[in-house]
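Weekly puzzle thread! Below is a chain. First person to post its structure in token form gets bragging rights.
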Amino acid sequence: MLLDCAERLTPAQFDELSQLVKRLNPQCAVWNTTGGDQGPHHAADTVLRGWMWSPNAKLNPAQPLFNKYQQCQTAGKAFVLNVGPDPSGNIPDNQIAVLMQVKKLIENPPPAPSAAPAPAAKPDAAERLKTLKSLYDQGLINKEDYDKKVKEIMDSL
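Winning reply:
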């Protein structure tokens, strides 16, 4: 459960609400989304080009949403994909179609482009550190995981 309204809660109110959710459903994760659509445990996007439904809302294509999903998987994060229910509370068919396209891409990912040369069996330490730094800078991994992986790379030298 993402709390988009968390910035309006005091820390005590947020804790109280989190405890209530956990008591009702112990498997539910509660994340404070204050500060945007990235967090230490998740990244979020939406099927809509904005966060709210409108009759003429443009949709995000499935492929970029799938790409963000893959980045999250690589970083060990949850990917939260939002939809915008219409005024009756239903999810419009065009949004469901995008969700189904993303689902198909997850189940059957497209093959990597064959034009690119095959990567080396193990990238050198500098390249691995550069990739890791990029994931950290994008907010896809937290500081603790970043430091741990840097240490692993350095220890492998």
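Puzzle host: Confirmed. Bonus trivia for everyone else. The helical segments are 11-24, 62-75, 93-107, 125-137, 143-155.
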